[in-house]
Design the sequence.
């Protein structure tokens, strides 16, 4: 099955927030009440009801201020930490790419939120029994051959939906074709072992708002320790316990045998003594 | 007999106070369950784990005396430690109950917690899964271990049946404890970029297990001394002193591993070069390891004062370590700090008060525990 992805060319983004609106419409997410904080960025951040959001930054580039727009949402990692750490398999990575969530299994430990390198899973703690929520790559649309709502709606065509491998080729071609336009890096190609969402940028990615997360899979170590380390520890400790139990039993057994042996030898000595006395008495009588 | 001791001491005043605090906590728990986490805690999308996680990750290792001493008595056949093991088991059981109750308040889908016992939902790749299932199973083990202690005087068939399999039960308990004490540390393996490098380590699960042995045994020594004092009996220094010696050995191992780990990772420079984190690390290491190691490795462990001081230091050190890892040295979102709400603090305190109250009542009213303490000298 094809593995899908999205290529987000931040140089084409005009910050219209159409993606955010389309996302809310397709996923039946309510609007949230926000306050004017002196920026165009609104809603201010991702939340349980805002799965994708445009972050507005003014950045200095070639002696003038330019807008930098970051479409933030779940990256749909190739090796998702949230999926690896969820105790009850409430999060899954689909073969087609999306990382999806099943609310009816969730125990609400919020470990996915702690593990995610991008701070994506959100929860509305004002609900009594809240669920985790995040972008699901419109898995329902994708599995029916449709692009995600955000990609479908994006007016300047900044979001390109397609097979991930082809998008990587496409992104690198865009960099090669436009010398000097882009930073020579496709964010997401190798970040945390690869993500389904890929970014192109004209300014360094940390200025765009994407963190340096390294190229190692985030859950690799924890995963290996849980799958290999735990059973090894179990077997080792079990063997040590059985050994210790056997030794201590043997020690107690030996001690009691020694006691019995001592008792017997003492009794034998007594009997021998009695015999001797009896013999002596007999001799004396004779 | 029991009534006499109760009225003689100042404890009767403490009982209703502890009870009132515990009830207040229960009332706050109801508020939490009906209002949700948002209005009652300072948890947020930017700081999803708070004081209750710190509470759980401290109480569980401090209850580690239960599995270590059960191992000593039932596996290593050292029946002379039976009295201390009884106390540690009772305290540990209450510790786990409080930890799980607080955990159930902490998770936002406590109504679906049963997920962890459905095998088709298990995620064997997750340390959280190992922790949840292992603690749930260990509850059963501890209950079985406690039945002969609580009902030992009644010659019930169930009690005799359990008594027969106690070494096996204790062995399973040690196994389950090894798993979840270590796995609690394993939870942080994915957070190498969020937890300060002085604490994050690829063998953090091993550190959690070893420190649980240290903290658990030290807490057991403390509890034993306080229990014997409460019952006006002579504290069996010679038994506790041997435990202290064992703790000193484990501490030396812990120290070598900790420093070796920093050395191998090339992080020794951070010990003095990380500002306030260095201070926290050095305080934790001195209070939690160096000072108690010095006390427990010397003849000072043969005195009640020495034992009390060393064990207290070790327990405080463990608390500092868990507070650093779950809170002070953990930055989930850059620029976001967290301080618990008064409800989070009150519920944590009242859970401890409830545990202390039930333990004190158990010490006075459970004939086997009381007898084992009185004969245990």
Sequence:
């Amino acid at each position: 099955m094809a593995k899908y992805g999205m290529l987000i060319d931040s140089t084409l983004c005009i910050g219209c927030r159409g993606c955010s609106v389309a996302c809310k419409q397709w996923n039946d997410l309510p609007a949230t009440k926000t306050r004017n904080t002196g920026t165009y960025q609104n809603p201010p951040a991702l939340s349980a009801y805002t799965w994708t959001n445009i972050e507005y930054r003014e950045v200095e580039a070639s002696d003038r201020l330019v807008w930098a727009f970051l479409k933030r949402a779940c990256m749909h990692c190739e090796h998702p930490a949230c999926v690896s750490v969820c105790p009850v398999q409430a999060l899954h990575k689909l073969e087609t790419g999306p990382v999806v969530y099943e609310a009816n299994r969730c125990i609400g430990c919020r470990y996915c939120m702690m593990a995610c390198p991008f701070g994506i899973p959100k929860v509305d703690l004002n609900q009594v029994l809240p669920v985790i929520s995040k972008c699901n790559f419109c898995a329902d649309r994708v599995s029916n051959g449709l692009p995600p709502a955000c990609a479908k709606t994006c007016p300047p065509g900044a979001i390109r939906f397609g097979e991930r491998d082809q998008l990587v080729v496409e992104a690198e071609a865009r960099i090669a074709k436009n010398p000097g336009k882009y930073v020579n890096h496709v964010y997401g190609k190798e970040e945390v072992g690869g993500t389904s969402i890929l970014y192109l940028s004209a300014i360094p990615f940390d200025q765009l708002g994407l963190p340096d997360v390294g190229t190692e899979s985030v859950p690799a170590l924890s995963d290996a320790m849980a799958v290999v380390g735990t059973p090894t520890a179990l077997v080792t400790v079990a063997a040590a316990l059985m050994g210790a139990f056997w030794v201590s039993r043997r020690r107690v057994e030996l001690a009691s045998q020694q006691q019995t042996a001592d008792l017997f030898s003492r009794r034998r000595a007594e009997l021998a003594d009695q015999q001797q006395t009896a013999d002596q008495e007999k001799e004396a009588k004779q | 007999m029991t009534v006499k001791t109760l009225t003689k001491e100042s404890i009767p005043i403490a009982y209703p106070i502890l009870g009132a605090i515990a009830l207040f906590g229960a009332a706050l728990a109801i508020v939490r369950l009906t209002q949700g986490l948002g209005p009652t805690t300072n948890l947020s999308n930017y700081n999803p784990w708070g004081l209750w996680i710190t509470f759980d990750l401290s109480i569980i290792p401090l209850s580690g005396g239960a599995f270590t001493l059960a191992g000593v008595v039932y596996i290593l056949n050292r029946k002379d430690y039976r009295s201390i093991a009884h106390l540690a088991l009772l305290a540990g059981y209450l510790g786990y109950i409080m930890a799980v109750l607080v955990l159930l308040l902490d998770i936002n889908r406590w109504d679906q917690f049963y997920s962890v016992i459905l095998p088709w939902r298990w995620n064997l790749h997750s340390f959280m899964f190992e922790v949840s299932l292992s603690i749930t199973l260990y509850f059963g083990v501890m209950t079985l271990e406690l039945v002969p202690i609580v009902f030992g005087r009644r010659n019930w068939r169930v009690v005799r049946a359990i008594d027969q399999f106690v070494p096996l039960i204790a062995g399973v308990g040690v196994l389950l404890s090894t798993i979840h004490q270590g796995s609690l540390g394993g939870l942080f393996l994915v957070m190498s970029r969020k937890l300060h490098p002085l604490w994050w380590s690829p063998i953090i699960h091993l550190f959690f297990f070893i420190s649980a042995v240290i903290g658990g045994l030290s807490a057991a020594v403390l509890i034993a001394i306080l229990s014997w004092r409460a019952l006006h009996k002579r504290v069996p220094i010679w038994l506790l002193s041997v435990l202290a010696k064992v703790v000193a050995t484990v501490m030396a191992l812990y120290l070598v591993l900790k420093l070796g780990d920093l050395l191998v990772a090339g992080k020794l420079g951070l010990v003095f070069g990380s500002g306030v984190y260095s201070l926290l690390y050095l305080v934790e290491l001195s209070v939690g390891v160096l000072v108690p190691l010095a006390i427990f490795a010397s003849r000072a462990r043969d005195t009640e004062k020495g034992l009390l001081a060393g064990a207290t230091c070790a327990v405080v050190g463990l608390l500092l370590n868990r507070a650093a890892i779950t809170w002070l040295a953990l930055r989930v979102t850059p620029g976001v700090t967290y301080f618990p709400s008064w409800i989070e603090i009150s519920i944590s305190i009242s859970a401890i008060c409830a545990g202390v109250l039930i333990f004190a009542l158990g010490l006075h009213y459970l004939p086997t525990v009381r007898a084992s303490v009185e004969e245990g000298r």
Remarks:
- Chain A has two domains: 4-216, 219-286.
